[in-house]
Amino acid sequence: MSSIISLLSADQVSNLSTTQIASLGVKDAAAFTSTNIVGLSSSQAAYLSTADVVSISTAALAALANATYGATLDAISSSLSASQLSTDVISQLETDGDLGNLATKSIAGLTTVQAAALTSTQIEALTTAQIHVLTSKDVAALSTTELGALVTADLDKFSAAQIAALTSDQVTAVAGSLSSTQVANLVATQLTSSLLDTLNTASTLQSVSTKAIAGLTTVQAGALTSTQIEALTTAQVRALTSKDVAALSSTELGALGTAAIDEFSAGQIAALTSDQVTAFSGSLSSTQVANLVAPQLTSSLLDTLNTASTLVSVSTKAIAALTTVQAGALTSTQIEGLSTAQIHALTSKDVAALSSTELG
User: Is 2's pLDDT higher than 60?
Assistant: First the structure.
């Protein structure tokens, strides 16, 4: 019968009864041509089995992808396979509001080329279930321009794994529209400086997970600005590794206020270089000064702490660990600024190294 179907005109196809349509096999369906399939009505098409529909050639389907014959295409949309979803077919289904009819199996079978061709309005028309079956490769292939046109409600359809699969360029394109929930699904490799700026502007930077913060490279940490650091929560700041903390810009650290510095843990303060500590020493609270370690106690830092009246907060443990070189560099003003307990913590070698001029 397949040879007969291929020879039928559009008018003859339109005269086939629903019983005859229902009796067609896959070979018959495959014999529809771009010329005669346009005679198939939506009511007739409803009698085609799924196996029949997936056998229809892409050329024949292309003939239905227009306003005149779109109703017939809509009638078989739920049975279409991924390979049949050409740009024209998807476009027509979008126009008719029937993209949601496509089987999730078909959406899951899209190639990266097909996924990359999806427009923002088509993505918006897909259901959450359909969005969720897009593979990671398909998600990564989505156009940044089209993604950037999506609103928060559309982006919320994506799963956590799909958000994590987005490239940094894609994330940057949608950053301003990401909900707090989706921001929490971002991973460290996506956190560029420009993205963090956008999230901060959108007031969602604090939703970045501590796991993502902990996964930052030293290069990423080194690019953090004082504005970004100040916007982080205490939990996020404390998720930074010791290496990340040591990579923070002295210039940016120097712009931090006492409240922001107080978010750092004792271990993180101890991990700072002497240059970093010197950069914000004037803003160190007594609590944080107590977390300083001996190698950080340069002469210039001690001067700053003394001026800020926090020199007495340096721990006796740090004082006791001073090298004889550091002790020998202590000035009379600095010695006068030390408490009795701090003076007593100096070792015999440190005391012997003190400058007689300064002691005098």
Answer: no
